[in-house]
Design brief:
Glutamine Phosphoribosylpyrophosphate, subunit 1, domain 1, 4 domains, 7-stranded antiparallel beta sheet, 5-stranded parallel beta sheet
């Protein structure tokens, strides 16, 4: 008999029967299944094979657990939207949506140093690892099986989903856009079914992803929508998002950010509780929506039963990485070296460039993609790494904000049909997001009767000059030393602290910011989280 302990955090709604637990919702054969429906469904799954076959058919956001006296099965959805953590101590197995609870059960008190190094480079820990050696996590699109094998626990995992290009269709650009339209109508009708008349709240930026959400909802006649934007007064994104909302007749809210607001919120007990919930001993917390949702909740701007619908991660699926890494998208042949170097350049870049060259990092990248030959091209491998790591563990982790404040959420662009669509689209239609941008612009004209607005980079000339200088001197240790000593670097840091469009750096004092010299907000948050864990250990 296996000795299993399972613990779920009370803020999260879940359904439990004698032998199964379900969190979240999913479509199965176009029918929406609630938490209870999913537990009822699991009662008919009698084996590991049945469990793994069934989860491939689910389209939604969930964590599932099924158990009996001799076996336990668990799975997260294709984006790990609801994380599960596990650990083993002797013949005892622990499973929870709380990494901290698992850590306490297995008795880990010191962080793994190599995991800490990776965390400071990326903002998360890759693969199944966390910051603590005996606390593991299910990866995106992964299932877990625990067996009692002659009174010895056998623990194995199975990757049931990866994003891999298939190139099954040879279509014109126009035909591909028509198919995209069909896919979008289906997935947004599923969202409307989930919302069931409740207020849909959309974080509306100046970009294409959130714009597509409000356009499709308007087109399909769902009018109970609130859009919101946040940041310092005068940011370009606010004007673009305000214009989009006005063109669609959607209520629009703007929440003003400043350094004082951030300092008060970040150093509050409210934020400390959120950090414990959201970080999972493996990810930096996403904070950008936190003040906006907090203030809108406090001021009763949104109803308690509202559902948040962010625009993650349509741009990546549509080819946004091709803008920064065009060479990766130029061939259909997979090249280990090119993929590894591109991943390191894009993702292992928060600090300390020298460390990116370590053999350890190379092995980490390869282990996530293993076997790398399963990918038909560099772009597929590169994007698969991004989707299973940065998107799943950082970008998507932003939904913890909504959960923490008592709201439900849905991620339309992680709909199974939408992801399958992009797996089949030729690279040439995805380079610089050619197909996607044309579709969204066309839809905007059709729905509003207006030309689509586009975000223009409005950084000041002096900021641009400083960035050019900084880039040109990046590899010159002597000149960087001179900048530090001359005080010019201090001046740059002061301007950076006070001119950030989201005022993020207000989470700490200006003095501490200059002392720490963080490259960006993600590195700063990574540093602060490690500091929290270190203080607890000592």
């Amino acid at each position: 008999m296996i000795n299993v302990s399972i613990e779920f955090q009370r803020y999260r709604k879940y359904s439990q029967t004698a032998n199964s637990i379900a969190v979240g919702k999913a479509f199965y054969q176009e029918r929406l299944y609630s938490e209870k429906d999913l537990t009822d469904m699991m009662s008919h799954w009698q084996s590991e094979e049945q469990f793994c076959r069934a989860i491939k058919e689910l389209n939604g956001f969930y964590a599932l657990i099924q158990f009996n006296e001799r076996q336990l099965f668990a799975a997260v959805d294709r984006v790990r939207s609801i994380p599960l953590f596990y650990g083993q101590k002797g013949n005892n197995f622990f499973l929870s949506d709380s990494a901290e609870w698992v850590r306490q059960q297995v008795g880990n008190h010191e962080m793994d140093e190599t995991a800490k190094q990776e965390f400071l480079l990326t903002g998360y820990v890759t693969g199944s690892d966390t910051l603590y050696p005996d606390v593991k996590q299910l990866q995106a699109g992964e299932a877990l099986c625990v067996d009692d094998n002659k009174n010895q626990l056998s623990v194995k995992t199975y990757r049931y989903y990866r994003f891999i290009h298939k190139y099954e269709k040879n279509q014109t650009l126009e035909e591909s856009m028509e198919e995209l339209d069909h896919v979008l109508v289906g997935m947004f009708n599923r969202l409307i079914q989930v919302a069931d008349g409740r207020t849909i709240v959309v974080p509306l930026s100046g970009g294409f992803d959130s714009r597509l959400i409000v356009l499709m909802l308007k087109r399909l006649g769902y009018n109970n929508v609130i859009a919101y934007t946040y940041g310092c007064l005068g940011i370009a994104e606010a004007e673009v998002s305000r214009h989009v909302a006005a063109s669609l007749g959607i209520r629009w809210e703007f929440v003003t950010y400043n350094n004082q607001l951030w300092y008060e919120l970040y150093n509050s007990n409210h934020m400390k509780l959120y950090q414990t919930l959201a970080a999972g001993l493996s990810s930096t917390i996403v904070i950008q929506d936190f003040p906006a949702v907090h203030i809108m909740t406090k001021n009763n701007i949104i109803n308690g039963d509202s559902i948040f619908v962010p625009g993650h991660s349509a741009d990546l699926l549509a080819g946004s990485r091709s803008i920064s890494f065009p060479k990766i998208y130029s061939t259909k042949l997979v090249n280990d070296f090119k993929v590894i170097e591109s991943v390191k350049k894009r993702h292992y870049s928060l600090t300390n460039v020298r460390e990116q060259k370590s053999i350890y990092i190379n092995k980490r990248v390869i282990s996530v993609l293993e076997p790398i030959r399963q990918f038909p091209d560099n772009a597929s491998a590169f994007e698969s790494w991004d989707l299973s790591e940065r998107q799943a563990k950082f970008i998507i982790n932003s939904v913890r904000i909504y959960e923490f404040m008592g709201y439900q959420w849905w991620l339309p662009f992680w709909d199974e049909k939408f992801m399958s669509y992009w797996e089949k689209i030729p690279l040439e239609y995805r380079v610089r997001q050619l197909l996607y941008k044309q579709y969204v612009d066309k839809l905007y004209r059709e729905v509003t009767g207006e030309a689509p607005p586009h975000l223009i980079n409005n950084r000041s000339t002096i900021d641009n000059i400083e960035n050019v200088i900084k880039t040109s001197l990046k590899k010159n240790k002597l000149t960087n030393y001179i900048l530090d000593k001359s005080g010019l670097d201090k001046g740059h840091l002061k301007r950076k602290y006070n001119s950030e469009p989201m005022a993020f750096y207000g989470v700490i004092s200006e003095e501490d910011f200059i002392r720490l010299k963080p490259t960006d907000i993600d590195y700063l948050l990574a540093l602060l989280y490690i500091e929290v864990l270190n203080n607890r250990e000592h």
